[in-house]
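Hi F.,

I've been meaning to write this up properly since the lab meeting, where we talked about keeping a consistent format for the predictions we share between groups. The idea is simple: the sequence comes first, exactly as it goes in, then the structure tokens exactly as they come out, then a line or two of notes. No screenshots and no reformatting. I'm using this chain as the first example so we have something concrete to point to.
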Amino acid sequence: MALVLQKIYKFYDYHFNENVDERIKDLFLMQSPWLITCIVGGYVFFVTGFGQRLMKDRKAFDLTSIINIYNIIQVFLNLFMGLGALITLFDMDDLNLTCVPVARLIKTEMGMKIIRFSHMYHLIKVIDLLDTIFFILRKKNHQVSFLHIYHHAVMAGGTYLYIKFCSGGGQPLSLGIINSFVHVIMYGYYFLTSFKPELKQSIWWKKHITQIQMIQFAVIIFHHLLPLYYECSFPKTLSAIVAFQNIFMLIMFSDFYVKAYIKKKSVKHN
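Output, unedited:
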């Protein structure tokens, strides 16, 4: 048992202390894995039971103004992240979209730019956790699904590991860019519906936003399968993990799409 614990400690010490890119050591939330572990753990604890119990005998909070500000901030943050990372990507020397190098291997100002945008993407994913917390505080518990919680928790924790081990860049840079633009559309929709509630009744908007998210997963899966077939500096194991994760998300979203838009439509027609 002592030998096993010693090996675990050595693995942890090497990957989280010794073999770390010096450029990311002082970035916010990157100093220790325990910070993000506590944030994600606290989030899951709150949204899977504690929050509902806390709000059970309380009146739902009116967070309309706060959520409006949150949504518009998300639009601008994701737009800045998406455009900035996209410009940086196409400004790279010898750009090869089938194999994007990790920032850990780029010891130039370009590498630092990639690190900054990748880190910003991670922070946005941490901010995204507020989505579910708002649901709980407004007593919209029916909107707190396994898919919703799983997606937010994995993105917040996964982006931390991505920067820790790759310093940013690599194939997941495409994920960050595509996902940022998808979130511009999504949060833009949320912001508009706060002023025009009648838009919520239109299935057209929701249906196409879900379709865009599904296309996003398909593109990301394809892009992360490429390093498995071509020689690439991006770790094949990580590429396979990201591809598998997005296959799972595509299946989950497809299931939601069928239940929400296809089966409901056929029931109405009957």
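Notes:
The radius of gyration is 20 Å.
Residues 29 and 35 are 6 Å apart (CA to CA).

If this format works for you, I'll send the rest the same way.

G.
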